[in-house]
Specification:
disordered N terminus, alpha/beta, 20 helices
């Protein structure tokens, strides 16, 4: 499949006239029948919304430091506790409890890079993480998948691979955030080998490895190295893999997550530390209290990455939301979620650490609730200054389901955001004073020279939205956005072509996966 060169929106706007609407879509070229924006490195030109004052931010910071000093974290791995103790933390004898002095925390997080490059096997798809760069990823880790024709079903290999094909085909998606859906028909002992090999063969973008024990991380790092055809030394100079580390809230880091940090940070790969703090359940019921706990957990984990290896790349993850206090079910896309995302961005910038957020909803199907909750969540992330958007496309049911149609609708929404991030041109030509003089009072602009020169690329041309009038829409069978999304994802899969992969790399990858499978993969309880 042909690839568009990676180009920043800022560079593009200087190099050629501003592109909008159909002209931008026509340049994509990934599929002969698919109109979409070209691959581009996005930068957010707007100042992030800061909804609390500096004094309030300092109060959250201080509360977080007091949590780490006075309460501490339970650290459920002996090697990790030993390293923390050597680094200056206080480990309670005969206990898992570790306490951290605030000066120790601040010293260690000061060495986290403010920005870095995350390398893909196709260099055109490298990602810039940090500062005002913005990257969009897929839904990840859903146990179920759904589509209009197949209904809701348990995750499986065929659906997993099709989600990868969609991700590769959609230029607006920059990375695979994890397994879009968990393929439970592959045994857990070797699942990571098949899934990561598919990331290499079906895509050429950045991918993720789960931290579920040391060996899975080691296998993931080796697969990332093989995919790029580079040495171990070059891999450690060029981060090429990322992992999400979730604290086990409240205030606990479990063994698989700690081992993931030790394996990834030791090799200079990317750790995104993300507490999953639901206010009223695993965190205080107030937004401020939940954020103070989130911040404490995130900083403890990020500081540990630097205890493992100073200067290794890390990302501050914000994932605080609330629950339905009647049922206890997680709620997403709420006003509280948006506020928490924006304050999380403020905290990440306060510490000069790249920021991860998410596009999420709690809807059970592709409906109005899914649309408005996702839109709310996305605005919270974008205007919170996110550098890395997890679950950008396809998320349903609070993360329990990956939807093919929702991925298409979210891709359209992300493309709208990409156009929004390009901003508005204000100059003599765009002010159109000559056109105003030509038309004068009471006329129209459809036939003016100014309009005719620009009508083909005047506005964003959507993937999903239907702008026909009611009668024309009705004559076409009254298709909904759900219908359009279903048709589009099927079309993309029909036209998919795998990205080029060097034969020697493919052979080395196949040999590695076969050898690790012959060794039994990883031990499981299954």
């Amino acid at each position: 499949m042909s690839q568009d060169p990676a180009v920043s929106a800022e560079t593009a706007s200087k190099a050629r006239p501003r592109r909008t609407g159909k002209q931008r879509h026509a340049e994509a070229g990934s599929h002969s029948q698919l109109q979409q924006l070209p691959w581009q490195t996005l930068k957010n030109p707007y100042k992030p919304i800061e909804i609390i004052y500096q004094e309030q931010l300092e109060l959250i910071h201080d509360a977080s430091m007091r949590i780490l000093e006075e309460v501490g974290m339970d650290v459920l791995d002996e090697d990790a506790r030993e390293l923390m103790a050597k680094s200056g933390a206080t480990v309670t004898v005969g206990s898992n409890r570790v306490r951290f002095d605030r000066h120790l925390i601040m010293d260690y997080i000061s060495s986290v890079p403010e920005s870095f490059t995350l390398h893909a096997r196709n260099p055109a798809h490298n990602l810039q993480v940090g500062k005002n760069f913005t990257n969009f990823g897929t839904v990840a880790s859903a146990p179920n998948s759904s589509s209009m024709d197949g209904g809701r079903r348990a995750g499986n290999k065929a659906d997993y691979q099709n989600f990868l094909r969609l991700m590769q085909s959609l230029n607006i998606l920059h990375f695979t955030g994890g397994y879009p859906v968990e393929p439970v028909d592959i045994h857990a002992s070797v699942r990571h080998l098949d899934c990561l090999a598919d990331c290499v063969t079906l895509t050429d973008k950045v991918f993720h490895a789960y931290s579920l024990g040391r060996q899975r991380n080691r296998d993931g790092i080796e697969i990332a190295r093989i995919a790029r055809g580079i040495s171990d030394e070059q891999l450690e100079q060029e981060p090429s893999l990322f992992t999400i580390i979730n604290t086990s809230s409240p205030l606990r880091l479990d063994q698989p997550m700690l081992q993931g940090i030790m394996e990834m940070s030791a090799r200079n790969q990317v750790v995104m530390l993300t507490p999953f703090t639901l206010a009223g359940a695993m965190a205080p019921v107030t937004v401020a209290g939940a954020l103070a706990q989130q911040n404490a957990e995130a900083l403890a984990g990020i500081a540990f990455t630097q205890m493992v290896r100073r200067g290794s790349p890390a990302v501050y993850g914000g994932f605080t939301s609330n629950v339905d206090m009647k049922s206890g079910a997680p709620a997403f896309g709420t006003p509280e979620y948006v506020m928490a995302a924006q304050i999380s961005g403020q905290l990440a910038r306060y510490y000069k650490i790249p920021f991860r957020s998410s596009n999420v909803c709690a809807a059970n199907t592709v409906d109005a609730q899914a649309a408005y909750e996702s839109t709310m969540a996305l605005w919270g992330a974008i205007m919170g200054g996110t550098n890395f958007l997890m679950h950008g496309a396809g998320w349903l049911e609070g993360g329990l389901c990956a939807s093919f149609e929702k991925m298409m609708i979210d891709a359209d929404l992300l493309q709208m955001m990409a156009v929004y991030l390009q901003g508005v041109t204000v100059d003599e030509a765009s002010l159109a004073l000559e056109a105003v003089k030509d038309v004068g009072p009471g006329g129209h602009y459809f036939g003016t020279a100014h309009t005719m020169a620009r009508y083909k690329d005047a506005f964003y041309a959507p993937l999903i939205s239907d702008w026909r009038n009611f009668e024309t829409w009705q004559e076409a069978g009254s298709p909904t956005a759900y219908d359009h999304a279903h048709k589009l994802y099927k079309q993309i899969l029909e036209n998919y072509e795998p990205p080029a992969l060097d034969a020697a790399i493919r052979e080395e990858l196949d040999d590695f996966v076969a050898r690790r499978k012959s060794e039994g993969g990883v031990a499981t309880d299954f």
